Amino acid sequence: MSFEKLDDTMMKTYPTKVYRKRKKAAMVNDPGEVKEIQANVRTIPGIITQRGCTYAGCKGVVLGPTRDIVNITHGPIGCGFYSWLTRRNQTRPENETSENFMTYCFSTDMQDSNIVFGGEKLLKDAIQEAYDLFHPKAIAIFSTCPVGLIGDDVHAVAREMKAQFGDCNVFGFSCEGYKGVSQSAGHHIANNQIFKHVIGNDDSRSDSKFRVNLLGEYNIGGDAFVLEELFEKCGIELVATFSGNSSIDHFANAHTADLNLIMCHRSINYVAEMMEVKFGVPWTKVNFIGAEQSAKSLRKVGAYFEDPQLISRIEEVIAEEMLKTDEAAAKYRPGTEGKTAMLFVGGSRAHHYQDLFAELGMKTLAAGYEFAHRDDYEGRRVLPSIKVDADSRNIEELHIEKDPERYSQALQDRKAALMEKGMEFSDYEGMMAQMEKGALVIDDISHYEMEKLVEVYKPDVFCAGIKEKYAVQKMGIPLKQLHSYDYGGPYAGFDGAVNFYKEIERMVNTNVWGLIKAPWSTQSAMSAKYARGKHAVASHT
Ligand code: CFM
């Protein structure tokens, strides 16, 4: 079945109104003529989405990997539990006595009475208790849905406690789960508060020559460890990583770096933009997923500093690392060549991991994000044409101005000179321009659509998350989790690429998948018809 036809028949199963809406979120790709896709809009109630909530994006994603902030979830215990290291973000404290609160799960454990009479007192007590126990440098408060519904003012509580302590930065996040249409809103809220309360608090700088930040790298399965080693080998200092293997001290002087490198554009572009306006630090897009892309990204850093010694060191490192990845590709590629993959995940990886599959000679048949915005699909050039709807207006846009003392005109001049020579800054081309003509792109895919794709195309591997994993595997197709990496990783950089090649080769050649029969393929299932007007079609059974 052609993709055009599938796209249409799959979508036509929906009731008319749903069909009209979902149709705008699915298309056959043409990199030469990137079309407009619907993204970052509400999921239709009743559809099983892959998405998570705003609190997850703020607490779990952006702030989760920072080890020395006591992150308190203000809300019922369940929210805290589900953001408690389930993402496999790792950390490595400087030494045995360094603070690491990531293994704890701090929650105010709200009860019915707090919902009825208010939870501010409970929150104050929790902050006080955390302070007395740990004397941390910072305490952050994350609002869950009920906090917004009952109107607790977490920011007022934070201000009060901060003033009372005097030696502990306390700040809050209005990241109630319902605040946006997905976790993407939580990223934005996290970026705003980190920028307001932390970045710029420490002006000290080391005297190393090449100082950069890595933004949008979260150290899943140890990715950041691989990249830190790689940067060190090249002689490049990582001032801060947002926020894989990070400490609040790194954030506080991130503004002293000379360049921001963005991995995951979706989750952190706001910090990069604000840092550029206030401090003059330019940003450029990188990707350390895949050997080729890792090499390209390192070369970008070399080109930025225009230092012959750095450039030759980077080339040496690339040559050395490529030996490993070339050897691994030669070993595993015969088992993967010509096989197919589908990737439906997050707001970044569904794009980046296509490079790794290409290195294995595998074809990406279909891909899509859970919660990305149009710019992540179509490129930042469409930003001016994105309509700001009521849901996005819900999220505060900070008004940032140039810092009169700390703004670096020198960095901006360097950026302008390099742009003349063709180097790209402040840009992301998006997923669609890089995908093959004829591949399918679907935003916020539903479980039903996913099952249909698997049923018709039987890809050799499907990449998504835990919610999809067992449904897909029961259909006889291996599923690789691209959020947590299952139990594997690291997959970033050159060492990561070798791990990924090996893992995928194993998965796509395991005979067990051919032996699996889904329970529903042999037993009859209930069927029903949608109750609606003239376009009624029988639902699938
Ligand atoms: Fe960025 Fe991420 Fe991702 Fe993301 Fe996430 Fe993630 Fe992801 Mo899961 S920050 S958008 S909100 S790269 S947790 S580390 S894997 S959905 S594609």
UniProtKB/TrEMBL annotation:
Its cofactor is [8Fe-7S] cluster; [7Fe-Mo-9S-C-homocitryl] cluster. One of its GO terms (cellular component) is molybdenum-iron nitrogenase complex. One of its GO terms (molecular function) is ATP binding. Transmembrane segments: none annotated. Keywords: ATP-binding, Iron, Iron-sulfur, Metal-binding, Molybdenum, Nitrogen fixation, Nucleotide-binding, Oxidoreductase. Residues 53-506 form the Nitrogenase/oxidoreductase component domain. Tetramer of two alpha and two beta chains. Forms complex with the iron protein (nitrogenase component 2). It is an enzyme of class 1 (oxidoreductase). It catalyses: N2 + 8 reduced [2Fe-2S]-[ferredoxin] + 16 ATP + 16 H2O = H2 + 8 oxidized [2Fe-2S]-[ferredoxin] + 2 NH4(+) + 16 ADP + 16 phosphate + 6 H(+). Its EC number is 1.18.6.1. The keyword Ubl conjugation does not apply. Belongs to the NifD/NifK/NifE/NifN family. It comes from Spirochaeta isovalerica. This is Nitrogenase protein alpha chain. The keyword RNA-binding does not apply. InterPro entries: Nase/OxRdtase_comp1, Nase_comp1_asu, Nase_comp1_CS, Nase_Mo-Fe_asu. This molybdenum-iron protein is part of the nitrogenase complex that catalyzes the key enzymatic reactions in nitrogen fixation.
